[in-house]
Every structure is written in structure tokens, then in C-alpha cells.
Amino acid sequence: MTRKTKGLLSILVPVVAWGISFVSTEFLLAVLGPMTIGAIRFVIATALLYVAMKVTKQPLKIKSEDRFLFLLAGGVGIGLYFFFENTGIKYISASPAALIIAAIPVFTLIFEALIYKRKIEGLDLFAVLLSVFGVVFIVDIKFSEFFKMQESIGYLMMVGAVFAWVIYSLASKPLFEKYSYLTIIFYQFLYSIPFFIPLVFFESNRWHAIGFEVIAHLIFLSIIASVLGFYCYAKAMDLLGVTESSIFINFLPIVTIIFSYFYLGTVISVRQFIGGALVLASVTITTLHGQHVQRRKEQQVVQTELEG
After folding, report:
1. How far apart are CA 150 and CA 72, in angstroms?
2. Is the pTM of this model over 0.85?
3. What angle do helix axes 152-172 and 94-101 make, rounded to 10 degrees?
4. C-alpha–C-alpha distance, residues 94 and 135, integer Å
5. What whole-number distance in Å separates Cα of residue 107 and Cα of residue 245?
6. 82-98: per-residue pLDDT in tens?
């Protein structure tokens, strides 16, 4: 199995898990505050990862010079991301929020080029923009909502979420050469917890309303969406690249809509079908282009060896 195939299989896990997680989070918000959900989710996930590292005898020590990258990825990329996203959704509807989040691949591509000197090719840019356009169809955006001044806080928060996730992706990239995926997400989760805990005390939680269904959703978010989802996303970023992996994030609204159709009976519109097709096309272009680039690199290596 090639690196590309492994990466594509890996990215499917967070896409499905995180797409469904929006439904779980929406259910939990009726009982718990957004940062309380985040705190519980990542405390449980961190504890499970610690046990997994002990069982698999993974080294717990990390180099002091890498702590800043772990803090950036965990504190900013996870902690602040969820703070910005969950707070933003309080001020604006899900449609413009989803469209702003769809800009993640655009900024990831730009900043990866600036920081890691990645060459931006025409097909890369076309695929990224096509995926954003697909999300416009999926969420049925009303652009008039962008011009309501009272909602400006929500837009700023969602933009903050975009940059927080870009920071997560780019801060994670150098760590793949030094640590296992398990070690990386363990410390990222660990460093995210201090960003959640203080905000829990400012939220009104209905602890008495916690029942079996609430616990089941929290377990899903902790184990499937967090441990398994972030592990596979880290693997995908390593195997596919940070920009290529970020494009798949625009599949999340599609998964959410499909799951809502079966779980909540939500009707899927023609616009959403078209949007889904555009996102799928963007991912296909990225995948095929990536395979072409990989083959070209392999041919160059062979040619160099023959000339040598």
C-alpha cells in the first residue's frame, strides 16, 4: 500500500468522525456549555492516550525545544480553535460559520508556501477554491448575513478559528520527523486542557440533566472524534501534506448533512448535492495531482541515479 493510499484511508476517519461530531455537540449544548464539553472531551482523551502510551511503551519525554510547537498546536490549534468556533456560532448562524471555516485550505496553502517554501501550483489553488465554492452550495449561504454589524463578533471569532486551525496544521508538520503520532496528539491534547478549564467556571451547566445519552455522546467525542480522529488526521498530514489534508475538512458539512438525514430526518436539497459534487471534484483533483507529482519525483530520482 502506497503512502498516498494510507493517507487517503487515514483522512476518511476524521472526516466522518468530525462530521458526525457536530450533531453530537449540538445535542450536548442543550445540557453543557461549549468549553465544558471541550474540557471533558480532551481530559478523557488525554487520559486514554496516556494509558495507550504506557501499554505500547511509547517514550513520554519530548525535547524542550519542541515544547513551543506542542503548545502552539495544542493550546492555540485545539484550545483556542474550539473557543473561537463555539463562541462564534453563538453570534452567527451555521451557514456563514461553515463558509468561513471552508477557507482553512486557502490559508493553509498560503502560509505553508510562506513558512515552508511550498510551491503553489495552479491545480492546487484551483482545487482549494473549488472546494470553498462547493461549501457555498452546501450551506446555502445568505450573503446579506455578512453585513449585519451586530454579528461582527461572530465573524471575527470564526476567522480566529480558521487561523487557529492553520497554526495547528503548520505547528504539527515539523513534529512528524521526531515523534510518533501517539506522542504528538497526547501532548497536543495535554497542552489544550489549560485553555478549556478556566472557561468552564463561566458557563452555566445543567449537571442534573446528564443521563445515558449525554454520556454516550461525550464518549463518542472523546474516543472516536478526539483520539481516533486526531490520530488519523496527524497521520494524514504526514502522508498527504497539510494543505492536501485540510481540503478534506470541507467534506465535514457533507457528512453532517448525510448523518442528519438518517439521524434527524433532514431533507437533502439539490444545491447540497451539487456542492458535495464540487467538493468531491476538488479532492479528486488534489489526489490525482499529488500522485502525478509523486511519480514525477520518483522519475527524477531514477534519472539522477542513472546519470550518476
Report:
1. 31
2. no
3. 30
4. 12
5. 13
6. 888 877 777 776 656 66
188, 133 Cβ separation under 8 angstroms:
no
Span 94-121, pLDDT tens digits: 656 666 777 787 778 778 788 877 776 7
Grid cell digits, residue 55? 501499554
210-218 contact pairs (CB < 8 A, 24+): 210/31, 210/32, 213/27, 214/27, 214/28, 214/31, 214/32, 217/24, 217/27, 217/28, 218/28, 218/37, 218/40, 218/41, 218/44
Backbone angles phi, psi at 32, to 5 degrees: -120, 155
Sign, Cα dihedral of 62, 221, 228, 79: negative
CB atoms within 10 A of CB 166: 25
Q: Domain ranges for the chain, please list them.
A: 3-307
| CB atoms closer than 10 angstroms to residue 303 | 10
pLDDT tens digits, 182-212: 999 999 999 999 999 999 999 989 999 999 9
Cell numbers found for residue 11: 483522512
Q: Tell me the C-alpha distance between 155 and 161, whole Å.
A: 10
276 CA to centre of own chain: 18
Of 173, 189, 147, which is closest to residue 241 (Cα–Cα)? 173
| Cβ(11)–Cβ(232) below 8 Å | yes
What does residue 225 show for φ and ψ, rounded to 5 degrees? -70, -35
